[in-house]
Amino acid sequence: MAIIPITPDPMDAPKGAAKTNRIGLQVLDYRGGKTTLCAGCGHNAISERIIDAFYEMGVKPERVMKLSGIGCSSKSPAYFMTRSHSFNSVHGRMPSLATGALLANRTMKALGISGDGDTASIGIGQFIHMMRRNVPIIYIIEDNGVYGLTKGQFSATADIGSMLKTGVINDLPAIDTCALAIQMGATFVGRSFSGDKKQLLTMLKAAIAHHGTVVLDVISPCVTFNDHEGSSRSYKYTQEHQEAISEAGFVPHFHEIDVEYDPGTTINVEMHDGSHLRLRKLREDYAPSNPAAAVSALMSAHTKQEVLTGIFYVDNQKPSFTQMLNLVDEPLGTLPDSRVRPDRAALEDVMQRLM
Amino acid sequence: MATEFVALAEGSHGATLVEPKTQQRAPQENIVNDLSIQIATVNGSGSQSANSVLLKSIFRMGIPVSGKNLFPSNIAGLPTWYTIRANKNGYVARKKEIDLLIAMNPETAQEDILSLPTGAAAIYEESANLKQFRNDVACYPVPFDKLTAGVCPEAKLRKLVKNMIYVGVTAQLLKIDMEAVEPALRKQFAKKVKAADLNWAAVQAGYEYAAANFTKQDRYIVQAMNATAGKILIDGNSAAGLGCVFAGCTVVMWYPITPSTSLVEGFIEYAKRYRIEEDGKATFAVVQAEDELAAIGAVLGAGWAGARAMTATSGPGISLMAEFAGLGYYAELPGVIFDVQRGGPSTGMPTRTQQGDILAVAFLSHGDTKHVLLIPGSVKECYEMAIAAFDLAEQLQTPVFVMSDLDLGMNNWMSEPFVYPDKPLNRGKVLSADDLTRLGGFARYKDTDGTGVGSRTLPGTDHPQAAYFTRGTSHNEKSAYSERPDDYVNNVQRIARKFETARMLVPRPEIVQTGSSKIGLIAFGSSDFAVRESRDQLSEEYGLKTDYLRLRAYPFTHEVDDFVASHERVYVIEQNRDAQMLSLLKLHLQPVELAKLASIRHYSGMPIDARSVTDDLVTQEGV
């Protein structure tokens, strides 16, 4: 069967002129400070893909807030999109901060950057409750299986049997953040690899189009503490064991040309912003609207020692947390006095009732 | 005395002295409008409506009154007490002695009656035969079940209706005006007319039974006064919740914890009534968090993004908030945290009052942190300080803590009606896109006016130079990453300057000077009611004149230094074991003043009472 391209060509620009996106910004406008992470760190590649995704989607950086916890991953928001407000906060507690910020201004796009320790150990409580509420955020776990800033202890996503440089073997099972996310109510769940440019970029663009909790677990090898023989989070191991569950293509809502697809092999998902996500099945049992099937695929991947990647689950029906609260349309944080302070008659009324 | 108290009462308290203290009474003379009633029940027995009707009936007769729930941490089956104090002088703190006992709990009845002073009165279930234990107490046995059955054919309602019988009996014995009881009862049941009728019948049955069967043996009666006209009755938590509604609070994230829960529930009730727009959409969001860490995280996140956000908690929740409180302090984020204090720790005394979090909250977190505390001393201040806290938090860009306690928060207090805020919301230094164009950008952490407070921008500000990177202290004035020693020192010194700015902005203490006294009293929060009464006791019974300063905020202002400097001895009265406020004062005052400080502490879990303060002070003074 002929393979039909499911992603349109990248945007063309007139020759000679500086390339701009649909809102007239250059990719430069999405850049951040110089990274201080190790050369070759997977997190840097993820930062690059984030820049590309927001640039290509034409999201104004001022409309984005970047929130992070503590760790190498959580430092990375300083290295992309300087024109977005950013908050490097408390270890494992970024979800609550993001929830509050979104309550104050639900018109913003929230991007949460976390790591495997920040998410699956110290932060697992807030991670779970964020997903349960379906808080509208793109939550990226830059997952390398170790604590970097404290020099190489195992995290809770490290695979059982994986070995540290020191020879210590991990004897506890990994928490699969994607399986957990599907069970806990996240509405867009996928896994990628920092070394897989195309897949990661597509997933990020689709994430921008989604309104609800997006959990992207991105395998992001730590070149300093976890890239050796015996580690199951090394570049080599991930490249050798990566298996994609589907091939994702993305047609943004502002793209006029639609591309045909084969409904027999490809699932079309209409996103909240009108974009289209095209998921070509690479496995017979792939059913991204079925949480049980998605969890089952993840569980069986573990037994086969596969690093299963791709978009596992999408639910575009469930309302997001900020939609459920029946709030006024404007950001709550900047409503004028007249709309947040009741008038004198209201106080009079209360006082009368208390006399 | 009277003029002195008017000054103190100004704006804050409903209770003012209306006549001088009564003289020595003749043995058989009635004691008018000066008694405390204790209703001993089992929790879960539904006595709350009856107690509330009794309280409000006395209030409607124009007599100053307060009501306190002394309850266990339990839903049903353990002993609980409700105390009502009616006092013509406006003393509404807890009174140590009980004058009228209503013994509805057979489990504690014997202990309850044995605790009464000679000359007290007791109403109890006939079969309990409590008279056998005391012949110096006026005994009024009532066949509660028989009377209840007479008015309430439906057996399953009898447990609730039974409580109204004692309202009737009490009304008859104390001469409470039935014309006051009926409207209090009808208001209590609002639109439930059938329930009101049934309960009113029970009150009447009790009244008639007492009239037909009892001869008055005790001396306690009430008489109509005119001291409550125009006053309101409210608990401090509801008052604070109401304050938040009028403060323009838009985001609330909270985790239920006694005794703070009713603060957020109060907010929800009032916000639903006054903060829903015509299209049915809300100008506020209330979210029940998974824990207190998330609650304060959301408050600070919301504050960062421009909302007036608050949470309410108590001691154990404060502990969990410690890390975020430090981040809020260093990252300079507005937010309001109500601490309705109780006894610690988690399995401590969750339903008992205390002022035990003073030191913990003043320095909550790690590194050099010191927080702004507001300390309401009345329900009116719970309302006013809620509003002030949001203004201060945004002006100073820092978390502000409002230190209430269970006694103030969960009990009913009389008050002047609350006043509509006369100033618009003070949203602090927030730059708009136009400001940024005009200024050509900004440096987030630069002190441009000596207050220590920089200008901030909110996420979503449509300007390429609006964004800044928020983190703890490792940044320079322009919010770029820095661990340089000079940047750090400059930054934390600027934050310390904000504390000096706070000192200029926080509410001043209330001071009562007699002009000649060598003894000063310092107290705060719910202790105020007992301290005012104690001062009168000291003066009338021992001829000891005292001056009084009521703290209303931390950082302390110069009035505190002046007050201590102008007295020979200063008693710091507080409701904790370790003299926490005294310790905080010691850190503030000049060393030469420290020897003057003495301590009076009350920490049994019961609200502080005047007699305990008086006795302790008199002992220390050697009078």
What oligomeric state do the depicted chains represent?
heterodimer
CATH architecture identity of chain A: 3-Layer(aba) Sandwich
Binned strand content of chain A: 15-25%
The CATH topology assignment of the largest domain in chain B is Pyruvate-ferredoxin Oxidoreductase, domain 3
Largest sheet of chain B: 7 strands, mixed
Describe the 3D structure.
The complex is a heterodimer of chains A (355) and B (623). Chain A has a single domain (27-354), classed as 3-Layer(aba) Sandwich (Rossmann fold), CATH 3.40.50. In chain A, strand 1 (64-68), helix 2 and strand 2 form a beta-alpha-beta unit. Residues 1-5 of chain A have low confidence and may be disordered. The radius of gyration of chain A is 21 Å and the shape is globular. Chain A has an 8-stranded mixed beta sheet with strand order 2-1-3-4-8-7-13-9, sandwiched between helices. A 3-stranded antiparallel beta sheet of chain A has the order 10-12-11. Chain A has 12 helices and 13 strands. The longest helix of chain A is centred in the N-terminal third of the chain and has 16 residues, at 42-57. Chain A has 355 residues and is α/β, with parallel strands linked by helices. Chain B is built from 21 helices and 23 strands. Chain B folds into 4 domains: 30-229, Pyruvate-ferredoxin Oxidoreductase, domain 3, CATH 3.40.920.10; 234-415, Rossmann fold (3-Layer(aba) Sandwich); 433-505, no CATH class; 510-621, Rossmann fold, CATH 3.40.50. With 623 residues, chain B is an alpha/beta fold. In chain B, 56% of the residues are buried. The two termini of chain B are 21 Å apart. Chain B has a 7-stranded mixed beta sheet with strand order 11-10-12-13-15-14-21, with helices on both faces. Chains A and B meet through strand 2, helix 3, helix 5, helix 11 and helix 12 of A and strand 9, helix 8, helix 9, helix 10 and helix 12 of B. Strand 2 of chain A pairs parallel with strand 17 of chain B.
